[in-house]
Structures
1.
Amino acid sequence: MISDPPNKPMDNDDFDELDAILDDLRTRGDEVPQWEFCEGAMAALVCSRRVIMPSEYFPVLLGLEADAPADGAPAEPEEGMTRFADAIQAGRFMELWMRRWNEVAMALNAEVETLEDENCYHPEVMDVRGAVLELSDEARAEIGDQELPAFAQVWALGFMFVVENWAEEWAAPRDKEAAGWLNDALDAIVSLTDDDTDPPAFSMHSEDGPPSVSEARMNTFGGAIWAVYDLRELWRNLGPRIETVRKTETPGRNDPCWCGSGKKFKKCHGLH
């Protein structure tokens, strides 16, 4: 199989393929998320304060074991564990994941003035409610009263999943202005995790389609995208957290040695 170039733009077929792989993983681990959730998690990982490696985040996000390699060579499946079907599937997933990662990183590094800018970050999100409204009466009847996520709600949940699981990387900085910037940005994304209860005004599928997304929701969505840019800029300016190094006191020459030998320090480790 010929691999796609790492900078090849993602298209609908690529996202459908990612969804299909996740669907297959879900047969071996029912907590594997949908792609929209992964898309939100990816955005958070890209703009996280510290570079978090795939070997660290995939076990948490997809339920893979910590020792499951992310280079396309997974171990044999174990009962109850989420595993790729084979090395080919794992390799293809990583190829598509990194292509999307590069797209998101490039977009968040770009200087954009409006959300309509072609270089702006555009999350891959679904308007599930709108899609259901366009189904036939029979198809909608099969769905029944099943609760459907609001527009971009799953994306925001994926973003906050990373924030909550790597809370130390999202801790408020000491600088009050920076801390306020962080809180405002996260609040904007958290707002998107709420349901859309306002009157629907837009269809995300067609101009004359049945409305399914409120005007307030679209404003909240736009605010969340700008919040991601703010977070990316904030952590890029502050850099990774620096752990405080505390110097331990050296025992006196006649004090008991710290190793617990019972000897005086000068006759034990103090000799070295």
2.
Amino acid sequence: MPTLEITTMVGCPLMCTFCPQPALKKKYEAENAPRDRDSKYMGLETFERILSKTPKHVRIDFSGMAEPWANPDCTEMLRKTLASGYKVAVFSTLYGMSEPDADQVIELLRIHSQQIVAVCLHLPDANGNMPGWKYSRTWENVFLKFRRLKQENILDAFSIMTMDGSGATHKDLSHLNLEIPPWHGHTRAGSLDEKNVETQNIYTQTPHNTTAVSCADTPFYDQNVVLPNGDVLLCCMDYSMKHVIGNLLQQNYYDLFTGSEMNQLRQTNMSPGFSSCSICKSCNRTLNYDLSPSSMWTASGDPLALRDATIAEYRYHLDRINASPWWRFGKAVTNFVRGRRAGN
């Protein structure tokens, strides 16, 4: 599904070790200092302009490259998005969310449950991968409200995670007796400073893809991230802002996919050989292709076995195509022609 992740602010105070915040903050501030020194937070008016340019089939994710509720306008952003009819996913540490905010958010999730694709709570872990988090009674009360919502089973997907290979939570949360699956990290396509997590041994090494590649999550490169100033990044791996594909305050949505940056990326990805000019060549979420003896591109390995999420997505689109009246009409015409040719 095409998605647009909303980065409501830059310089997330949680400073998670698996989130390369220093790289993002340094590049973003360098790019914006001459233009706008107040672009750290996405304003509500800016958000509304971005939303107005985003097609309704694009899912809006409150996640991005920072805790969404570090921006005090986030609840209102969520309200406007749901009222506009978009599908929504929420990924939050609950940082910055007051109890009244939590009540409003939970009520919105209840009312618009058919639009909610996923809710994921990211909790502090036993390895200290969320150094900016501090326990408070308010945080726990907010979390308990969300846990009660999870128990209502009105949302299709509600999960809780940590950035820890054991799934163990921070010691200040041990009394909650939470059972969370282990999490396996990665280097964000080389954006991460691996020294920050080198003792944990739970991440994959940065790949060095020397074949032609395509994104395993979406063949259209349409799972993007928008920053507070309207800049759109290729994907959630690009904390170094290697691929700014456009700006939704200055362009229309589909213009993002026809610009020079996107065209250069596609050209690099379809070429054999490693290149530092494409973040995809250092990503572990790729399909890798080789030329067969007949000079046809073939995917390495079994992408259907490796990418369950991608399979589900392709099946979803295939089902929609098969259900289309135009597709059924086309098949009927084809069958009729075949029958005439066979003399029936």
